[in-house]
């Protein structure tokens, strides 16, 4: 940038000099042409990059178009199959063979045709019919389009179809007119297959197929091959490759299995669940997967009402009206898929599906639902049902297939430790699929539909819902009844908060709105059951593992994305981008294995905690309990809020007669009250979901499958009930597997309890243990009488988790002197100490910063926020004593804030440094804190700017190299953006990361996908560090599972049993040291050079530009003196 500015200034000065020269002085044509060439070259390289970007965008569009073509083809296969339109199916197959666009579609077409031929063979009259002759001729025509380079699965299906065609030919009566033609056609088909059989077709005993081929069909295929080959050589077995890529040094110790002596026990086994029980649970789970909705009893105390919400809807005849609306749709004048559904699906099933969609929207208590989510809720169950009908028609019993696979896979969770010691979940799943000759990524995906088709289908179906779902409203004055729509679409203005600043931005979002009058009725007449989407629930059986390239899991019959897409940046398909960058099957496997381990950890509901929570939650309709509920994080019901009423405020007068200022004040108070009521209602509904779901899953073992964001940070898929969330979420869950406390476990329980209170963050472990002994009577009182005793637990930072710890301690103490044998299930947490800054300090080897974030040993935990506050205070004193430009503001601040700079004033700014907070954002954060200290707004703004500068300067003092690294991260992100490429990198565990902050725009008549520079630059430092903290968590997970230790995590908070905390801590520290012993900064530098300055770019860029970007991408930050090995001895690194 500096060089560019210098060049511009030089050219401008030359221009001014030239203009001041005598007019008749001529300029050399050679010089002019030289300048023009230079400028042209500088412009040319950008034009060349735009050409590349245009080609890349076209390739992505082509790929997206191909996916849509595949989806349409699959939908057509289903439609033609169910309508028994064989000729259309044959034409579709022929088009696929000729276009060669979707080779994976052809085997499915041949499979369907084979099933049609099997159906013909079951009846003599069908064999003799003209329809069967037409089918055979159509099949023989297809053979002309078969070529040598078809997929192996296509050839196998063709062999199967050839076999049934032979049976049909042999069983058909002799017909002088047609038999000769049939024989000739068949001979030509057989001859062609003989040519392919010699070299192109392979089948082996342990071969895994992309589509399901039964064992009988496999025998038939082998028989056909033997007939066609003079000798038959079966395909050899594939050699088992390494568990992980040899390039991933961090997981090289995991390539070998843990020794039996060092392996604890299977962490995924629950002692009281046997194979028979799991098999029954799996049957129930498959039924749940095949449906869309589940009704969960509303177990929370509600207003007494004679009529429930369900009964009201029944009185209004929504189900009958939906049926009537569907009858009015003309199959010939609507979307083909809608027509197929109307013609082929049982009408009762279709009506029931739509009815439950409406019921779900109403029963969950919120008056706004995302329009996209609602569309998914409408169309997904219909597609599922259509898929079920298709499978039935094909004789394809998917559930039976998965039952056989699961019968082997479940050995991982019930067998002795050898299976889990010698295999990852992914490896055992692959072996289980091999028992059925299935590819480990096998899935019948009918449910995927492109957005355009989804919108078209939904518009038809949703209009039926909107017209059918009406409710009566009685006019206040006349008593006249009118029928109003329950649902409508609205564009809602949503406030979006930023992690980097305290200001908000508004964005419009299309939402499904439920009529407020209807919601008022349901508030008076609550639902007996709440309807939930089955995809939003925890699982009661172990999830299906994620496998290579992040495909597979976690449901057995329905595919899901492993990376969460960002709706704000729809143009970047994150899952596709990740898979395109995976260059070998073994790349990224550690990431997928870690997700599998986290998702396979078994949990149960902590029932005593749930009972106490329900008791407190049932007080949420009592205004006098507001103080208690606020302390415990329980929202109030919406009917406890007082909203100003016009008549009560002004009497029966006209609006025009009211003083303008008084009315404005009333309107403002009313708007604020409604906003608070709606926000509280939303929070109350979320709390309701958690409570009723926890009640529903009492006594059951639960699993929380995980996926991740594009950086690799992991999240449970269940949004309502999981261990990731607030204090309430965490308190109602505990490990399903119990472990004896052992020699140190009881101490860890007591320490965990004290840690949760948040009152001794600066105290040593020894002091905390002394405090735990002193508070033991209060702890026991809290456990025995949580709502009637001293209520010590309520004063904690995390009251609900503190109470759960109290209960566990009380139960353990019942064992007296034998407390070490108590079987504990409560997770004990170990939190990172400002984990983002820990990674920064490790990257920069900042000794001072490392000390403050506890990377080194100390007697008591250090607090980086207090340290920075002290440094800021010291700088303020220096300014007060100096004659510098900041003296006046420092003295004025002393008058307003005479005490030392409080920790809380600068805490958020220090915390969000890792998120890339800007100076502007920091000023807003500090200004808010100063206002809370009653400093006036104008002064607060001046002081905030001053304190923000001093805070950043103080951070630079302690984290000198780290902050320099952050600046370099921003610089290289800007460099990649200037080259019009999005920022991307690969994590130390092999996961490709692509920042999705791009927009589709037109540049020089070219439609290209370009990065949003500011977003790319601001986001890269925090995203890079988050990819490192997720890597550290995954390494800890992998190594814990490797040794048979239970592990769970919420980002930088690691959980395990009380008896394994010490070992988990050792693993956690060793993996952090191993991670930061890698030359991460140098690797990042080399990655940017090889990725953005390719040989092609070297040809395009002028040499000066190439040198400039090479210089930008070269790391020059000098590291500090921190010895990273000291982390191993730090007690408070994670504590």
TrEMBL record:
Its EC number is 2.7.7.6. Residues 283-600 form the DNA-directed RNA polymerase N-terminal domain. DNA-dependent RNA polymerase catalyzes the transcription of DNA into RNA using the four ribonucleoside triphosphates as substrates. It is an enzyme of class 2 (transferase). This is DNA-directed RNA polymerase. One of its GO terms (biological process) is mitochondrial transcription. Signal peptide: none annotated. Belongs to the phage and mitochondrial RNA polymerase family. GO terms for cellular component: mitochondrial DNA-directed RNA polymerase complex. GO terms for molecular function: DNA-directed RNA polymerase activity; mitochondrial promoter sequence-specific DNA binding. Transmembrane segments: none annotated. Coiled coil: none annotated.
């Amino acid at each position: 940038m500096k060089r560019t500015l210098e060049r511009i200034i030089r050219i401008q000065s030359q221009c001014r000099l030239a203009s001041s020269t005598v007019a008749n002085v001529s300029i050399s044509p050679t010089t002019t042409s030289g300048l023009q060439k230079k400028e042209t070259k500088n412009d040319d390289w950008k034009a060349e990059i735009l050409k590349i970007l245009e080609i890349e965008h076209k390739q992505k569009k082509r790929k997206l178009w191909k996916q849509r073509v595949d989806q349409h083809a699959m939908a057509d296969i289903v439609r033609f199959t169910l309508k028994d339109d064989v000729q259309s199916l044959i034409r579709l197959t022929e088009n696929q063979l000729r276009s060669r666009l979707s080779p994976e579609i052809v085997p499915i077409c041949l499979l369907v045709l084979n099933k049609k031929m099997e159906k013909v063979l079951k009846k003599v009259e069908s064999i003799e019919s003209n329809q069967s002759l037409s089918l055979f001729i159509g099949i023989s025509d297809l053979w002309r389009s078969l070529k040598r380079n078809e997929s192996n699965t296509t050839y196998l299906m063709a062999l199967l179809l050839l076999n049934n065609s032979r049976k049909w030919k042999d069983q058909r009566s002799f017909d002088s007119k047609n038999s000769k033609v049939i024989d000739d056609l068949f001979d030509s088909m057989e001859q062609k297959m003989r040519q392919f059989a010699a070299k192109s077709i392979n089948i082996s005993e342990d071969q895994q197929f992309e589509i399901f081929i039964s064992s009988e069909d496999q025998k038939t295929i082998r028989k056909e091959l033997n007939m066609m080959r003079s000798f038959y050589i079966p395909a050899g077995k594939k050699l088992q490759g390494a568990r992980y890529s040899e390039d991933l040094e961090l997981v090289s110790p995991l390539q070998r299995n843990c020794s039996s002596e060092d392996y604890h026990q299977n962490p995924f086994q629950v002692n009281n669940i046997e194979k028979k029980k799991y098999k029954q649970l799996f049957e129930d789970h498959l039924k749940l997967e095949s449906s869309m909705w589940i009704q969960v009893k509303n177990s929370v105390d509600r207003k007494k009402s004679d009529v429930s919400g369900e009964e009201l809807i029944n009185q209004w005849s929504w189900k009958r009206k939906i049926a009537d609306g569907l009858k009015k749709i003309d199959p010939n004048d609507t979307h083909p898929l809608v027509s197929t559904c109307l013609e082929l699906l049982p009408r009762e099933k279709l009506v029931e599906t739509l009815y439950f969609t409406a019921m779900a929207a109403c029963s969950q208590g919120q008056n706004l639902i995302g329009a996209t989510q609602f569309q998914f809720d409408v169309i997904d169950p219909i597609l599922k049902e259509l898929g079920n009908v298709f499978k039935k028609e094909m004789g394809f019993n998917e559930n039976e297939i998965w039952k056989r696979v699961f019968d082997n896979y479940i050995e991982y969770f019930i067998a002795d430790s050898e299976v889990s010691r010698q295999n990852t979940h992914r490896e055992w799943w692959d072996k289980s699929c091999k028992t059925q000759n299935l590819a480990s990524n096998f899935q019948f995906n009918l449910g995927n539909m492109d957005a355009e088709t989804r919108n078209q289908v939904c518009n038809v179906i949703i209009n039926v819902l909107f017209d059918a779902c009406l409710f009566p409203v009685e006019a206040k004055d006349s008593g006249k009844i009118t029928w109003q729509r329950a649902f409508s679409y609205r564009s809602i203005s949503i406030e979006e908060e930023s992690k980097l600043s305290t200001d908000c931005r508004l964005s419009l979002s299309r939402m499904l709105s439920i009529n407020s009058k209807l919601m008022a009725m349901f508030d008076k007449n609550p639902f007996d059951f709440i309807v939930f989407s089955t995809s939003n629930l925890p699982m009661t059986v172990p999830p299906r593992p994620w496998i290579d390239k992040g495909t597979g899991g976690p449901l057995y019959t329905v595919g899901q994305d492993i990376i969460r897409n960002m709706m704000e940046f729809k143009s970047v398909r994150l899952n596709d981008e990740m898979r395109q960058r995976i260059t070998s099957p073994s790349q990224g496997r550690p990431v997928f294995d870690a997700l599998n381990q986290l998702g396979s950890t078994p949990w149960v509901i902590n029932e005593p905690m749930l009972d106490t929570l329900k008791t407190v939650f049932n007080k949420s309709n009592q205004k006098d309990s507001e103080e208690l509920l606020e302390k415990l994080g329980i929202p109030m019901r919406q009917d406890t809020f007082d909203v100003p009423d016009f008549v009560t405020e002004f009497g029966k007068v006209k609006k025009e007669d009211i003083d303008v200022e008084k009315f404005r004040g009333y309107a403002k108070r009313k708007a604020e009250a409604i906003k608070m009521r709606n926000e509280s209602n939303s929070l109350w509904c979320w709390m309701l979901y958690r409570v009723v779901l926890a009640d529903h899953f009492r006594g059951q073992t639960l699993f929380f499958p995980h996926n991740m964001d594009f950086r690799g940070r992991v999240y449970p898929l269940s949004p309502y009930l999981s261990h990731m969330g607030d204090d309430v979420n965490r308190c109602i869950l505990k490990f399903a597997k119990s472990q004896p406390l052992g020699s140190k476990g009881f101490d860890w329980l007591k320490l965990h309890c004290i840690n949760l209170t948040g009152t001794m963050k600066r105290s040593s472990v020894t002091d905390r243990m002394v405090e735990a002994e002193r508070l033991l009577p209060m702890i026991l009182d809290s456990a025995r009488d949580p709502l009637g005793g001293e209520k010590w637990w309520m004063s904690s930072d995390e009251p609900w988790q503190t109470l759960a710890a109290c209960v566990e301690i009380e139960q353990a103490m019942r064992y007296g002197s034998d407390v070490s044998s108590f079987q504990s299930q409560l997770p004990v947490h170990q939190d990172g100490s400002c984990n983002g800054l820990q990674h920064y300090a490790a990257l920069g080897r900042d000794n001072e910063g490392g000390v403050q974030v506890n990377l080194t040993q100390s007697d008591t935990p250090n607090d980086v926020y207090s340290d920075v506050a002290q440094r800021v205070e010291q700088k303020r004193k220096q300014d007060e004593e100096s004659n510098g430009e900041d003296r006046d503001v420092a003295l004025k601040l002393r008058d307003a804030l005479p005490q030392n700079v409080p920790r809380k004033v600068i805490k958020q700014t220090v915390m969000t440094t890792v998120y890339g907070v800007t100076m502007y954002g920091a000023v807003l954060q500090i200004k808010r804190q100063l206002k809370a200290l009653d400093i006036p707004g104008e002064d607060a703004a001046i002081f905030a700017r001053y304190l923000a500068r001093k805070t950043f300067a103080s951070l630079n003092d302690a984290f000198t190299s780290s902050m320099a690294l952050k600046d370099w991260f921003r610089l290289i992100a800007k460099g990649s953006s200037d080259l019009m490429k999005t920022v991307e990198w690969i994590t130390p565990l092999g996961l490709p990361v692509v920042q999705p902050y791009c927009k589709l725009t037109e540049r020089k008549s070219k439609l290209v996908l370009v990065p949003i520079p500011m977003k790319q630059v601001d986001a890269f430092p925090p995203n890079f560090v988050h990819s490192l903290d997720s890597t550290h968590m995954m390494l800890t997970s992998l190594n814990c599972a490797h040794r048979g230790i239970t592990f769970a995590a919420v980002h930088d908070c690691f959980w395990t049993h009380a008896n394994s905390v010490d070992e988990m801590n050792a693993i956690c520290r060793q993996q952090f040291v191993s991670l930061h012993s890698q030359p991460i900064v140098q690797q990042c530098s080399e990655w940017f050079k090889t990725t953005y300055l390719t040989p092609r770019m070297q040809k395009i860029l002028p040499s000066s530009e190439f040198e400039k970007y090479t210089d930008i991408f070269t790391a020059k930050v000098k590291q500090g003196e921190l010895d990273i090995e000291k982390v191993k001895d730090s007690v408070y690194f994670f504590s």
